[in-house]
Amino acid sequence: MLRVRVIPSLLLRDGGLVKGRQFKHHKYVGDPVNAVKIFNEKEVDELVFLDISATSGGQGPNYELLVDIANEAFMPFGYGGGITSCDEIEKLFKIGIEKVILNTSAYSNPDLIRNASRVFGSQSIVASIDVKTSFLGRSEVYVQNGTRGTKINPLDYARKMQDLGAGEILLCSIDREGTGKGYDLNLLKAVSESVDIPVVAAGGAGKLEDMSKAVSEGGVSAVAAGDMFVFHGKHKAVLITYPSYDELKSLF
């Protein structure tokens, strides 16, 4: 097993697999269950699914789809989107999901993180933090799919999530997401150094070297990416792919 987890992070919207840029302009790229079948063949160790329509549409998780994904996936996977209660979290674990990922609900109802970590264990509760950084370098946590600013510094927020009981942080730069310009290393380093729990980098990976920098310079424990594993070439043709074990082993 690799020392560093390399996780395809896949976006769901209305039951389909989508990709966008900076949390906007999402387009349909395929069926999520078919994508899982391909990732099985690629021997991916872990997947993440984030349903961007679940919270904005006021819906709960799409359990029917998640059952289909769980029945097909050979690897553990995490899920986030529309989760508002411990009852929903319990139902997700019973489906076979290994980790639940809380974003907007962690902000609006911090007790959900606290209670969920007590009931199910912190190792299964992930706090998702989406961050925008201004031209002046001021970073701010955003929720609701990056549409609502909170005026909260990501370092303070990450420490709060840790104190509440989160076992891991999924940290995404909204400015970098879908751009292929590389992760926001300054953001990764600052947050990683402010907490003791693992931080997973997300948003901006365009090549394998970006991932090694996120670990060596950003100090994260794992890396997640979407475009790199879904698109191919400068015209972004849809092609599900994943680096070989030897390629990844040589990175870290």
UniProtKB/TrEMBL annotation:
Protein name: imidazole glycerol-phosphate synthase
GO biological process: L-histidine biosynthetic process
Assembly mode: Heterodimer of HisH and HisF.
NCBIfam families: AglZ_HisF2_fam
Molecular function terms, GO-annotated: imidazoleglycerol-phosphate synthase activity; lyase activity
Pathway linked to the protein: Amino-acid biosynthesis; L-histidine biosynthesis; L-histidine from 5-phospho-alpha-D-ribose 1-diphosphate: step 5/9
Family that this chain belongs to: Belongs to the HisA/HisF family.
Organism phylogeny: Bacteria, Pseudomonadati, Pseudomonadota, Gammaproteobacteria, Oceanospirillales
